[in-house]
Amino acid sequence: MSAVTKAEDWLTDLAGFQGEWQGTAHGAGICVIANRIDGPGSGPRLHKHPYPEVFVIRRGSALFTIGSEKIEAGEGSILVAPAGTPHKFENSGPGPLETIDIHQNGSFVTEWLE
């Protein structure tokens, strides 16, 4: 049997498509974050996870720092931060940045470094 989670059950902002979903409760080994970052220069601060994180850019562009690399990426790009690798990203403008972030773990485990 499949499990369905309705948008209103995990998105905190339906119009802006923002929210977090943890898969363990649904039999999945992943977590999902839907981000919308309106202002250039904004984004999550440096952190790491004991598992890989995959980023899919839906709209806009971002400057990612993954380990010692700085990567400019735009719509449709997919980036991977390997397990244990410090990473962060910020909206590089000019408009909003929308990402889908997939954590390869059924619950979030984050160590904030900044």
What does the secondary structure layout of this molecule look like, with pairings?
Blueprint: E1 11-13, E2 18-22, E3 31-37, E4 47-48, E5 53-59, E6 61-66, E7 69-74, E8 78-81, E9 87-91, E10 97-103, E11 111-112
Antiparallel strand pairs: 1-2, 2-3, 3-10, 4-11, 5-8, 5-10, 6-7, 6-9
Description:
It is a single chain. The chain has 114 residues and is mainly β. The chain has one domain: Jelly Rolls. It contains no helices and eleven strands. The protein has strands at 11-13, 18-22, 31-37, 47-48, 53-59, 61-66, 69-74, 78-81, 87-91, 97-103, 111-112. It has a six-stranded antiparallel beta sheet, with no helix packed on it. Strands 7-6-9 form a three-stranded antiparallel beta sheet, with no helix packed on it. The mean pLDDT is 96.
Largest sheet descriptor: 6 strands, antiparallel
Class computed from helices, strands and strand pairing: mainly beta
Strand order of the largest sheet: 1-2-3-10-5-8
Radius of gyration: 14 Å
* Continuous helix count: 0
Shape: globular
In the CATH hierarchy, the architecture is Sandwich
Domain unit count? 1
- N-C termini distance: 42 Å
What is the strand tally? 11
Produce a short descriptive summary.
The protein is an all-beta fold and 114 residues long. It contains no helices and 11 strands.
Question: Top keywords for this entry?
Answer:
114 residues, mainly beta, Jelly Rolls
